[in-house]
Amino acid sequence: MAWLRVFEATENETERSLVLPDGESVAVRWVRDSRARRLRLIVNDRGVRLTLPRRASVRLAESFLSEHRDWLQSQLAKRAATPTRLFAREHDSHVHLRGELLPIEWREGRFARAELGGHGVLLTQPAGGSDQRMRAALKEFYLQQARIDLGLWLPKYLATLPRAPIAVKLRPLSSLWGSLSPSDGLSLDLALVLGRPSAFEYVLVHELCHLLQRNHSRRFWQEVEARWPGWRQERDYLHGDGLAIKAELRRLVSA
Question: What is the pTM assigned to this prediction?
Answer without folding.
Answer: 0.73
